[in-house]
Structures are given as structure tokens and as C-alpha cells.
Amino acid sequence: MNRRALLASGIILAGGGLAGCLGRGASGMEGDVPEPVDLSGGKYDDHGGMVIGRHGGANGQVFYAENAPDRGENPAWFHTLVFGLFPYHFGRLDRGWEPRVVYVTDFSQVEYELTERDGRLQMPSPTAAETFGEAADLTYVAESEVMGGMGPALHPFSDEAEAEAFAAEHGGIALSFEEIDPVIIDRLQRGSGHGHEHDE
């Protein structure tokens, strides 16, 4: 799947009303924006129940304005973007939950090395608070040969040139935050031939 295939035929229309809401609340909320939190220490993903930091790939967290995950406190946190953060968050948007801010791993802020697992390259899974950036400001590499903990992944970078270089070296396409919608997430989950592996 290439960028044209992803974005053609009105695919981005589904995300037009959603993606713009994924960052800070659309209502222009007043007050300080919460800072990202450290996701180490055996925290369990709020969408799938897996331990964050153990499986590889970008992590994420979402602070909601007037709602919280089932455990009762913000933020909602995730060990994967494709199989965790985005599916959960799109579902919550459908319920009327308003995000205050969304954070994801910013690989431009991380000294990372790729590892090999089951014959595939894989990104690390940093969890420190300072490794997160505001999701709306990052560029995402999709469909590269480099996997996350559950297979196909989105790899976020605050430096667009780094994202483009990563895609040039490892395949894939660079997407802005606004271009990510439920249809694209579904197609990434299907893996375009990669399949996905659920690491326990």
C-alpha cells in the first residue's frame, strides 16, 4: 500500500472530523496542559492489557478532559499505537470523550537501536516521560519493514526529515497526524501482507 492508496477514495474523510480532535481539546480548554507521565513500572495497556515497554514500538498516552479509563484516572496509556492508542481513542471520540492532549513516543528524542526478532527489525519501547511528544506535532512512518510489538506499527518523529530518512531506509510512507484515521488504522492492522503477532 502506498500513500496514494492510503489516502485516495475519500479515506481521509473519515478522519477529517476525528483527527483534528486527537490533540488538545477542540473547545480551546483553558489551564495548563498535563505533562506526559513515565510509563515504566509494569503498567498495563488500557486497550489489550499488555505490559507497557516489554514488547517494542512506540507507546502513547491520552489525557481526557472529563473522562478517564476504567481504572479511574488519567491518562489512558498504551503499548502500541496501531493496536492500542488509536483504536481506543477513536472509540472514545465516538462516545463524546474530549481529549485534552495526546502524547506518543518521539523517536527524534531517543537514542535508539533497532533489534531483530523472528527475522524482523523492531523498534525499542522507551517509557520515560521525556521520550514523549505531542502527537499532533509529529510525523509518522507507516508500513516500514520495522515492526512494533504487535507487528505493523507507526513510528513517530518530531523531526520530519528524520521520518523521511527512516522511510527511505526502511520503506514505508510518512503521514502527518491529521492523515491518520480509523480506515488507515484498520488497514495497518491488517498488515498489508505483514500480518500481526500478539506477543504475550
Automatic annotation (TrEMBL):
The superkingdom of the source organism is Archaea
Q: InterPro entries given for it?
A: N2O_reductase_NosL
Q: Name one Pfam family in it.
A: NosL
Gene3D superfamilies recorded:
3.30.70.2050
Which SUPFAM superfamilies does the annotation name? NosL/MerB-like (SSF160387)
Q: What is this protein called?
A: Nitrous oxide reductase accessory protein NosL
